[in-house]
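Colleagues,

Please find the record for the two-part complex below.
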Amino acid sequence: MKNQPKIGVLRFLGTNCDQDIWEACLATNLQPEWVWYQDHFEPSNFDAFIVPGGFSYGDYLRSGALAAKAPSMKDLRMAADKGIPIVGICNGFQILCEMNLLPGVLMKNRDGKFIDEWVDLEVCSESPYSSAKKVRYPIAHGDGRYFVTNEELKNLQDQDQVWLRYFDNPNGSTFDIAGVKTKNVFGLMPHPERALFDWMGGSDGQSFFEGFLK
Amino acid sequence: MTTYLIAVKILPRPEVLDTQGRAVEATLKEGGLNLEHCRVGKYMEISVNAENQELALNQVREMAEYVLYNPLIENFELEVKG
């Protein structure tokens, strides 16, 4: 186990899950450090990065599209190239897709509504963040419909990149996909940081954050 | 150098579910208006300085490809407005 890994937490104007991520890091013996979206940083000073949820740039143009071009993201791309783990949650997932660090794109929910509820997820592929076969996290998004073409979906399946799937697809995502991954870049729409303790409604998020210690 | 006004018109690709278009279409039909289909996209106007129209279009095409549209789900076309 690593001793207090340092986690870079990206912050944009409009990020609103940053403080939750910060608290989740502290609760699981991680050492969070803010990374401001307009600043450059040295990727190797960090053990991992989290791109939190929210509404960066007010979701203007497309969710995550403008954030993907922010100065700090050049360095985040370097971090990805160096193999440093990067996890994008909700808007963070949208940003990583718009950066092409993850395949696909997140579109407006099938029924056009913002959805805020707990979901059960099947863990389809191994990662440090989810050793169970099934986890339960909340979702809270308007643009959570994961879209890839059939051809791209086949690529994802062949390369074991389908990470999390909804048991009961809430938003029309292709193949019920809630999260995808590459070797070191992970993205998911649900919020493990909102599922840390039983009083929150569930504690499956604990082991998610403990994954950064591995 | 001449200033050109270029319109960027972005629509969801035909095979992609266009939730906004579907909602607008339903409301129009519920209002008794006669239509087949409606799709909703984005419209932008960008003015650039360039030596000629072709170079102006190239500049804006580069912007479209940089961030304005996402080729996975959208198509775009350019129109010279002035």
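Chain B has one domain: 2-80.

Comments are welcome before we finalize the supplementary table.
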